[in-house]
Write a structure and sequence with these properties.
Blueprint: H1 8-30, E1 41-47, E2 58-61, E3 64-75, E4 78-85, E5 96-101, E6 108-113, E7 127-128, E8 130-132, H2 137-162, H3 164-212, H4 219-298, H5 301-308, H6 310-332, E9 334-344, E10 349-361, E11 364-387, E12 390-413, E13 416-423, E14 426-435, E15 440-447, E16 456-464, E17 469-476, E18 486-496, H7 497-506
Parallel strand pairs: 1-7, 2-6, 5-8
Antiparallel strand pairs: 1-4, 2-3, 3-4, 5-6, 9-10, 9-18, 10-11, 11-12, 12-13, 13-14, 14-15, 15-16, 16-17, 17-18
Helix pairs in contact: 2-3, 2-4, 3-4, 4-5
């Protein structure tokens, strides 16, 4: 049994139904519309700033996706994130949440850095308390500049204290003063030792002399001398006793003084030796530090140029400004892909549009469209009819399906968008007016000015049902002279590049 042959209209209808089914599935995936309860459990985390992070962004551990960011809200002047973690994934209480980026200009996502193994896991609805922010280029440059200034101040201080002839002279004076003090102590000890010995010898000699010359002295002189001798003997005995009693202490003190002198002398020799050995090294080190500081101050080397060269600072600032400007332009650059079908009541057929909108700026975009028009190609059939002997000529317009294209450039002025270029393979222009925060759009287009049945004018309106779906209705070719006027109603879908990127990244890999 042969299969029935499908007409062109049936094929187009099947193609449109398959396209709509695919777009509905993509919209449900991108919009987070799930049939049944979402799988996973919620966790929360707060950051001072979540700039550049979008809902549905990836949550990763060690580079492996373990969940998605469900919502981002403002709470107490901080970004409050609700995470949806996959079932069976345990997040420890000592995990650290870090905002990071895939590459230099890649999408931002949330990285959870594990802590100690065996830490207790977070329960459903708890908050990750440890967070860390990423550093930027401006902060790094400011830190390097501060470090360079600190190094410069330290080297200048060391050079001032120990550098030059004054520093060397100061160290030499200290060493000479210590040597002179040691020499004076040695002389004092030696001098006092000789004086004590001389006193003892003189006392012994005087006593002996008196004993030997005693018989020659007579009378009272002898008595006086004897008394004096006895007194001197007693005094000498007392002095000898005192000397004997204190000789040990005196000798011990002299010995201690000599020992201290020898120790001081050895210490000075050690100091001199260390100074002679270490001194050149210290001097060389200080000279090197002073040389480095001088080079930095003179602008030599990378650090010197970074600290002193104003042009280098300006170039770095310009580079950072250029990078920021490029990132800002990249973030403002968006691409939109869409489809809409308009059912023409007069033709009882559907007119399909496949749309690509490239938007480099918020107030400017380029619009490319492929149009499947069921009445795109027109032909006039003339016939001669005879009625009751009267001959008359009649014309009948026939239309066939045709693929057309549009290429327009648009400029937005507040709520009004003016665009022009090629509309459905002919020259034309159009205008759009937005209301209610861009949810409602009024449209007027004029094109095909060389047509026999007046220019093609089209007016309508579109209402956004959500992020992806919108309804459209209006009147097409409403001043046509050849009977092609038709009201229409339609349904459309539109996806942003971020939505497509999320869909592609979240789709399961193909297996063959």
């Amino acid at each position: 049994m042969a299969l029935p042959k499908l007409s062109s209209e049936a094929k187009v209808g099947l193609f449109v139904l398959l396209g709509i089914a695919l777009l509905v599935y993509m919209s449900m995936r991108l919009g987070g519309i799930n049939i049944g309860k979402e799988k996973g459990y919620p966790l929360f985390v707060e950051f001072d700033s979540a700039a550049g992070l979008d809902p549905n962004a990836s949550v990763r551990v060690a580079g492996v996706e373990v969940g998605r960011i469900k919502t981002i809200t403002l709470k107490d002047s901080k970004a409050h994130l609700e995470l949806l973690i996959q079932p069976g994934i345990k997040i420890g209480k000592d995990f650290t949440a870090v905002l990071t980026t895939k590459g230099l200009l890649g999408e931002k996502y949330l990285e959870l850095v594990p802590g100690q193994p065996g830490a207790p896991p977070l329960n459903e609805g708890e908050t990750i308390t440890r967070t860390r922010s990423y550093a930027d280029i401006d902060r790094l440059i400011r830190t390097l500049t501060g470090v360079a200034d600190d190094v410069k101040e330290i080297t200048e201080s060391l050079s001032t204290v120990l550098g030059g002839d004054d520093g060397e002279q100061t160290v030499g004076n200290i060493v000479r003063n210590i040597e002179e003090l040691t020499s004076r102590l040695n002389r004092i000890v030696a001098k006092n030792d000789e004086q004590f010995e001389s006193v003892m010898r003189n006392l012994d000699s005087f006593t002996t002399l008196l004993n030997e010359e005693g018989p020659a002295i007579t009378g009272g002189l002898r008595t006086a001398i004897q008394n004096l001798n006895e007194s001197l003997v007693k005094t000498t005995g007392n002095l000898n006793g005192m000397i004997d009693e204190n000789r040990g202490n005196l000798k011990e003190g002299i010995d201690n003084l000599r020992t201290a002198s020898l120790s001081l002398q050895q210490a000075m020799e050690t100091v001199n030796k260390v100074t002679s050995e270490v001194g050149p090294g210290v001097t060389n080190t200080m000279n090197s530090v002073s040389s480095i500081a001088k080079k930095i101050d003179d602008g030599e080397g990378t650090i010197g140029k970074l600290v002193n060269d104003k042009s280098l600072h300006e170039n770095i600032n310009k580079t950072v400004a250029g990078i920021n400007s490029y990132i800002e332009r990249t973030e403002n650059f968006h691409t939109f892909i869409g489809y809409r079908g308009e059912y023409l009541f007069d033709a009882r057929d559907t007119k399909s549009y496949l749309t690509l909108r490239i938007q480099p700026k918020s107030d400017k975009y380029y619009l490319l469209e492929i149009v499947d028009d069921p009445r795109g190609k027109r032909s006039v059939e003339r016939r001669t009819v005879t009625t009751d002997g009267v001959v008359s000529n009649t014309e009948e317009v026939k239309t066939t399906e045709q693929i057309k294209f549009s290429a327009q450039i648009a400029k937005r002025l507040k709520n009004l968008v003016v665009r022009g270029g090629i509309i459905e393979s002919t020259g034309g222009a159009g205008a759009d007016y937005y209301m209610f925060s861009d949810r409602l759009k009024w449209t007027l287009e004029a094109f095909d000015f060389g047509a026999e049945g007046n220019p093609h004018l089209k007016a309508g309106a579109s209402w956004n049902l959500g992020k992806f779906f919108f309804l459209t209705a209006g009147y097409d070719d409403f001043i046509s002279k050849v009977g092609l006027r038709s009201a229409y109603i339609g349904l459309g879908l539109q996806f942003q590049d971020e939505d497509l990127k999320y869909l592609i990244s979240s789709a399961p890999p193909l297996s063959f």
